[in-house]
Amino acid sequence: MEVMTGTRTAAAAPSDPDPPPKTRRRRDDAAVAALFLAPGLAGFVLFIVVPLGGSAVISLYEWPLFGTPAFVGLDNYSKLFGDPAFFTALTNTLLFAVVYTALNLALALGIALWLGTRMKGAGIWRVVFFLPVITPMVANALVWRLMLSDDGVLNAALGRAGVDGQSWLSDSRFALAAVIAMSVWQSFGYNVVVITAGLTSIPKEILEASRIDGTNPWQRLRYTILPMISPSLFFASTMTMIGAFQVFVQAQVLTRGGPGESTNTLVLYLYRNGFSFDRLGYASAIAWVLFVVVMLVTAVQFAGQRRWVNYDK
């Protein structure tokens, strides 16, 4: 009896229960998500993480384009902070970033408000303003170089008006302004789309109530519209500022960093050191300093958003 009872008890013992349906579903979803994320993560690691790590290593070497690298530690960074040309490029880049971002946002906001007045053909105008964004920057810069040359369209128009033309690209007083003007024209259409999206998200009832309260257009803009599109403005300002620190093509094509060093920027200075002067280690050090500068500026922008960005509508 005892043997039979023990056998029956062992046979009646339950096996390991299957996982609940919800748990199985979560595992399946996680596997599918990992499968879809794998190509993107692989590309991120291969084209972002690995180059970042490689540039950090190269910045610690005296690394010619052709030749044997030599480890120098932090010498590239110490030389960089003692290089007057670096600080000139940094100053030019900071000035470009501030003026370019301010003009870009002001122009984009004005045009977005104009397009939001229920005017006819607003969609066509949006396409017109966006065309420079999708046009290759090199092509745009070449057109602007022809237009701003000493015998270009702008000086010809000024001559017909009885005004003396200027050397817009070869005079240090105007060269950086010319680069900024071309850059704003190239990219403000993107911010027009971003700000227009913010404007269309404002409930019409709020604007109508503001009109009923007797506010004038300036008061509506300052106290109603701008606070409600502040998330769009914050996004546009952050992305525009990050792009401004990467300015390269405009200065390279229009002025090649001249006259003198008046339009030399950090990325252009990096490019010259890496591929013209055969100093890859020094160029990598410049790249990391630029990375830190962009991160600091972005951190300041995110810290300051608490004071003026309103996410509650």
From TrEMBL:
<dbReference type="GO" id="GO:0055085">
    <property type="term" value="P:transmembrane transport"/>
</dbReference>
<keyword id="KW-0812">Transmembrane</keyword>
<keyword id="KW-1133">Transmembrane helix</keyword>
<dbReference type="InterPro" id="IPR035906">
    <property type="entry name" value="MetI-like_sf"/>
</dbReference>
<dbReference type="InterPro" id="IPR000515">
    <property type="entry name" value="MetI-like"/>
</dbReference>
<protein>
    <submittedName>
        <fullName>Carbohydrate ABC transporter membrane protein 1, CUT1 family</fullName>
    </submittedName>
</protein>
<feature type="region of interest" description="Disordered">
    <location>
        <begin position="1"/>
        <end position="25"/>
    </location>
</feature>
<feature type="transmembrane region" description="Helical">
    <location>
        <begin position="127"/>
        <end position="147"/>
    </location>
</feature>
<feature type="transmembrane region" description="Helical">
    <location>
        <begin position="223"/>
        <end position="249"/>
    </location>
</feature>
<feature type="transmembrane region" description="Helical">
    <location>
        <begin position="32"/>
        <end position="61"/>
    </location>
</feature>
<keyword id="KW-0472">Membrane</keyword>
<feature type="transmembrane region" description="Helical">
    <location>
        <begin position="174"/>
        <end position="202"/>
    </location>
</feature>
<keyword id="KW-0813">Transport</keyword>
<comment type="similarity">
    <text>Belongs to the binding-protein-dependent transport system permease family.</text>
</comment>
<feature type="transmembrane region" description="Helical">
    <location>
        <begin position="280"/>
        <end position="303"/>
    </location>
</feature>
<feature type="domain" description="ABC transmembrane type-1">
    <location>
        <begin position="90"/>
        <end position="301"/>
    </location>
</feature>
<dbReference type="GO" id="GO:0005886">
    <property type="term" value="C:plasma membrane"/>
</dbReference>
<dbReference type="InterPro" id="IPR051393">
    <property type="entry name" value="ABC_transporter_permease"/>
</dbReference>
<feature type="transmembrane region" description="Helical">
    <location>
        <begin position="94"/>
        <end position="115"/>
    </location>
</feature>
<dbReference type="Pfam" id="PF00528">
    <property type="entry name" value="BPD_transp_1"/>
</dbReference>
<keyword id="KW-1003">Cell membrane</keyword>
